[in-house]
Amino acid sequence: MMTILGVLDWILFVILLVPGIYFIFYALASWFVPSRPVHKYPEFKEVIILIPAYKADEVILNTARSAVMQDYPGDIMRVQVISDGMSEETIEELGKIPVEVLPVSFENSSKAKALARAVSCLGPNAADTVIILDADNVIGRTFVTRVVDAFQDGAVAIQAHRKAKNRNSSTAVLDAASEEINNSVFRAGHMAMGLPPALIGSGMAFDYSWFYDHIGRCTTSGEDKELELMLLEEGAAIDYLDDVYLFDEKTSSARGYYNQRRRWIAAQFNCAVTALKRLPAAIRDRNYGLIDKLVQWLFPPRMVLAAVPLLMTVLYIVLGSPKFAKWFALSFILIVSFIAALPKKHKDGKLVKALLIAPLLAIMSFLNLFRIRGMRDRFIHTEHIR
Hints:
Helix content is 52%, strand content 13%. By secondary structure, it is α/β, with parallel strands linked by helices. Strands 3-2-1-4-7-6-8-5 form an eight-stranded mixed sheet, with helices on both faces. Helix 9 (254-284) runs antiparallel to helix 10. The longest helix has 31 residues, at 254-284. The radius of gyration is 21 Å and the shape is globular.
């Protein structure tokens, strides 16, 4: 029995060690992202900004206003809100901004369905570039100009730097920190190593023709991951703009965090299944960007990854077992990687206070592993500040 437990201990350790090494490698690599020159003579292309808005009456007006107020030629830029479940009053106010409004209704709403309906109505030649925003995003005046300019370097898809709009609760502080760690590890760090950065669902931009041909193939709530997989399988170039920001509202309550992570973990589970199926072919074809992505999708949720080594360290210390040493080393690696990936402005008293509720969120993340049924194509929106 002790031998079996020892083997299981080592299996669990190796399973968590791989993402630990992965995180610290790319966290340190993110320190060396080269600066990006802006083209002196940008090419202005036709742009459409699509904003799927599911029951987003509280926040959509600010988002629509920030999308319209761009330092970009108005005659070649359109903004369309895909309205699902919003009030007639909100739709009327949107018309005054003004933006285009496409009312939709689905039995099971999802962002993928909303986007697919929009491009179907727009047609194949509606624009050169499409930008996707969430209903609670806010962008600066030069956002569109910088994104369109970056397409001159040959990318098919571009991800901007998503930052937290709010840090008004401990949950929001941890959510914002997690966002920035992701930006460092999965985007900036990958760019520094010459690998494709990850997409994140909003602040994404695509060649319109490519998007028109592919968005209808997305069938889950993780449409960004599905699009990313298609890009990687086709060898299409993905770019990341570390200095082009959009601001995203973070969930302020533990309940909101729990519901949001249920959907994310369901998408992660589907990605893991996909990874197991496609990894052998990716290795055979030496598609290194796809190999990296598929391996990444096999990692456990962040909160679980952080909590288990700490828990095992404490457990073995209590039991007086020397096995605590390897778990302590793994905990140290993960803590260093998170510190290295986190921008200085997030390392403050709010974060220290927020870490007190981290164990609760870790437990919620673990429980979510057993409550993902039915979440594959269900849309759960962020609980917005009122």
